[in-house]
TrEMBL record:
InterPro entries: Ferrochelatase (IPR001015), Ferrochelatase_C (IPR033644), Ferrochelatase_N (IPR033659). It is found in: Cytoplasm. Keywords: Cytoplasm, Heme biosynthesis, Iron, Lyase, Metal-binding, Porphyrin biosynthesis. It holds the Pfam family Ferrochelatase. The gene is cpfC. GO terms for biological process: heme biosynthetic process. This is Coproporphyrin III ferrochelatase.
Length: 375
């Protein structure tokens, strides 16, 4: 077969994200989209609405995805890769179903998905796969041809994702006052999820007790802490902590919360803390509010110097990693055995989520996995 493009059999890349409000009138309908059927207390919803209103009703996430889109297109063009990139969201325009409809109208039939969530979990993986199944069902009901949809492997441990975070942690350390810098601890943060969801995250057999979500975050945290130690020559304490808890108080979620953690290490005499939000691909509302506003205010109240490391965002190394991951998966789909880059101890994640991976509380169809009802 002469001249197959390097991205064959894929003919489009889909950037799949969360979506966020773009003005005050969007906030309530956005939150209704997010929380439909998910049992979040009203009080919590009012509170989260206030976070958005504090920022003019605008989530930073959409502009960050527009930047990532531009970076991916530039990266593909620079490497002669003629692969169109589309963008669709779970909770706000451009909605996934509209994007998939456009993609099919443009003639594409074999789609590879990049979700803006790097780790295994129901919220970060299977729920996006359910959204893909819902969108395919909508197209099917309209009598449209259905594209085949795959999803890239989890990229939490890819050097193009971890590398920029190492650099960001070092930059944040460098921004602390010199007299507390060497004593500064690292607090790696990610989204809290219910412990029941954490325990069942990832493939049933792969990660043992505690699930893939925590294991993957610990692996990344250790990799970054090691790199920072080598670079600074200081063996500093580090911890994995959580933020953005939302469910009812009687349901256990992953702990400790970043604010409680800051209090605890301050009481133990930590001179400073660098917060490294490894659980988030960009500086969206969880980072801007829960870390930059709430946790930073808590630290000020304690008199504890803190700095926050930047997220990966549209870093060109991340765009290059996505290109590598696309070519890797394309090669694998063609039957080759590509090299698979991964840092840390866990190795590269699976291409195809196995049956029962990150199960939902109430089972629903999910595409782009071994249990997909679609080819
Ligand atoms: C693991 C995870 C990620 C990281 C992976 C990923 O990136 O996907 C993530 C990302 C995000 N979460 C976001 C926003 C929200 N998440 C909520 C609620 C929840 N998140 C959960 C988990 C996660 N969430 C969970 C278990 C819930 C409880 C309800 C449920 O089980 O569904 C709620 C409801 C109100 C509340 O906070 O209680 C909101 C508004 C935004 C947009 C931010 C912006 O606008 O800039 C982003 C990127
Ligand atoms: Fe969330």
């Amino acid at each position: 077969m002469p001249d197959q493009p390097a991205h064959a059999p894929y003919d489009a890349l889909l950037l799949l994200s969360f979506g966020g409000p773009e003005g005050p009138d969007d906030v309530v309908p956005f939150l209704e989209n997010v929380t439909r059927g998910r049992g979040i207390p009203r009080e919590r919803l009012k509170e989260v609405g206030q976070h958005y209103f504090l920022f003019g009703g605008v989530s930073p996430i959409n502009d960050q995805n527009r930047e990532l889109l531009a970076a991916l297109r530039a990266e593909f063009t620079a490497h002669g890769l003629d692969l169109p990139v589309y963008w669709g969201n779970r909770n706000w325009a451009p909605y996934l179903t509209d994007t998939l409809r456009q993609l099919v109208a443009d003639g594409h039939r074999r789609v590879l998905t990049l979700a803006t969530s790097a780790y295994a979990s129901y919220s970060g993986c299977r729920q996006y796969r359910e959204n893909l199944a819902d969108a395919l069902a909508a197209l099917e009901a309209e009598g449209l041809p259905l594209p085949r949809v795959d999803k890239l492997r989890h990229y939490f441990n890819h050097p193009g994702f971890v590398g920029p975070m190492v650099e960001a942690a070092l930059a944040a350390l460098a921004g602390l006052p010199a007299d507390v810098r060497d004593g500064a601890q690292l607090a790696f943060t990610t989204h809290s999820i219910p412990t029941a969801a954490a325990d069942t995250s990832g493939p049933a057999e792969a990660h043992g007790d505690g699930g893939a979500y925590v294991a993957q975050h610990l692996d990344v945290a250790r990799t970054i802490a090691d790199a920072v130690r080598k670079e600074t020559g200081v063996d500093r304490p580090w911890h994995l902590v959580y933020q953005s808890r939302s469910g009812a108080p009687h349901i256990p979620w992953l702990e400790p919360d970043i604010c409680d953690h800051l209090e605890a290490v301050h009481a133990e005499g930590a001179p400073a803390v660098v917060m490294v939000p490894i659980g988030f691909v960009s500086d969206h509302m969880e980072v801007k509010y829960d870390l930059d506003t709430e946790a930073t205010a808590k630290a000020a109240e304690l008199g504890l110097p803190v700095a926050r490391a930047a997220t990966v965002g549209a870093d060109p190394r991340f765009a290059a990693a996505v290109r590598e991951l696309v070519l890797e998966r394309a090669a694998a789909e063609r039957g080759a055995r590509p090299e698979r880059c991964a840092l840390g101890a866990l190795g590269p994640s699976h291409d195809l989520c196995p049956v029962g991976c990150c199960p939902a509380r109430a089972p629903r169809p999910a595409a782009a996995g071994a249990d997909s009802p679609y080819a």
